[in-house]
Amino acid sequence: MTQNAPIPQDPESRWPVVAAVLATAGLYAALPSDLAAGPWWLMPVVAGIFAVLLVATRRHYHKLHIVAGHLLSGTMTAFMIWSVIQLVLSLPTHRLPPVALLRAAGALWITNVVVFALWYWRLDAGGPHVRDARAGHETGAFLFPQMTLDGPAGDETDGSPWAPRFVDYLFLAFNTSAAFSPTDTAVLGRWAKTLVMTQAIISLAVVIVLAGRAVNIL
């Protein structure tokens, strides 16, 4: 792998991303065995391997760093979708106690938010390494409200041009799961529309399970 110039990094967004990955791995490890793909430790170990690879390649091996990031997000997505399918299939069979099923549904709902926030953060406008290399954020698959404002209202608190951080994509993902809509952010890119629809469908499936179980309990 050829070495290149270091990837620009935003220290304010680095640790929230690490925390999001660790939280998702922890939530998945806590799922009932009937819903997990493989043993409880499999997903955290696989995610951990890719996370270590990300850290090891972040300074010099750009292409490998980007590939590892996509593999990490893809792995987390695949595990989550498998578990959501198992969650839906478990509803009519009643193979899980009500409390365990409700906790699993809540964990998967949160996982859905975090996983798609990572996808949006990783893919929008060329990814974080491209966004951090330029001042401001004027183009991308998402039109954030700050991008439509002139003057100080469209700048960061320190006066620099506004650019999205991980928390902005987390907010976008939360709204998509909670309201089945990105609310204040316009979705422009076709790939982004596909991901937003996928996230909303997964969230809807989890909510249906929660509502169905609540009706059964009542």
Strand order in space, largest sheet? 1-2
What's the main sheet like? 2 strands, antiparallel
Number of domains: 1
Distance between the termini: 60 Å
Rounded Rg: 19 Å
Strand content: under 5%
Q: Outline, from the CA principal axes?
A: globular
- Strand element count: 2
By DSSP (H or I, 4+ residues per run), the number of helices equals: 7
- Overall residue-averaged pLDDT value: 84
What is the percent of helical residues?
Answer: 55-70%
Residue stretches low in confidence (pLDDT < 50, at least 5 long) are 1-12
Reading the helices and strands in chain order gives: HHHHHEHEH
Tell me the structural class: mainly alpha
